[in-house]
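Record type: ASSEMBLY
Status: queued
Input:
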Amino acid sequence: QKEVEQDPGPLSVPEGAIVSLNCTYSNSAFQYFMWYRQYSRKGPELLMYTYSSGNKEDGRFTAQVDKSSKYISLFIRDSQPSDSATYLCAMITGNQFYFGTGTSLTVIP
Amino acid sequence: GAVVSQHPSWVICKSGTSVKIECRSLDFQATTMFWYRQFPKQSLMLMATSNEGSKATYEQGVEKDKFLINHASLTLSTLTVTSAHPEDSSFYICSARDNMKSYEQYFGPGTRLTVT
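Status: finished
Output:
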């Protein structure tokens, strides 16, 4: 079983839709949870991070962590075509980073 | 925000030659840098962890003699692909961990290597 599981998609939604991206994990020792966005042929960029259960909001993005269920989510409100990218979740325990495989998202105008 | 640069952004080389890729943290110090490889439509594959002043730690299956890593300073790590072959063609991405924020990892823009 992989440390981090993420549905690769692809996910296609109309502009303005609410997008939900999810990851599950098996290691209860994970301390920090992050979401990266990667445009085609570019390096990933850090979108959000959190270290506790609950929600964290930043503009149209909300990161949610449920440690009891070992489940994290990224919600994108009012999705835009510019949100079309691959989204990777990442988790840290100690000095080790673990990445999900990424979910490809396309927002259709 | 923290910026990581990579140079070159793309390179084409002939089979059998060596290619060096630089990764720099521009506005922060990074004791630890990471090198990843990414194939089209696939996730990041960690190749090695580069530590300033010491030898890199390679992931299982990565040839250390083929992918030479040097982390000479707190802001620079280099990856040299030696005796490159067409199967080494890929997207190579580095990342750096900010010494002051161990939970954040910043990625470079990537280097596309094509070996002919």
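Annotation: The first strand of chain A starts at residue 4 and ends at 6.
Annotation: The mean pLDDT of chain A is 92.
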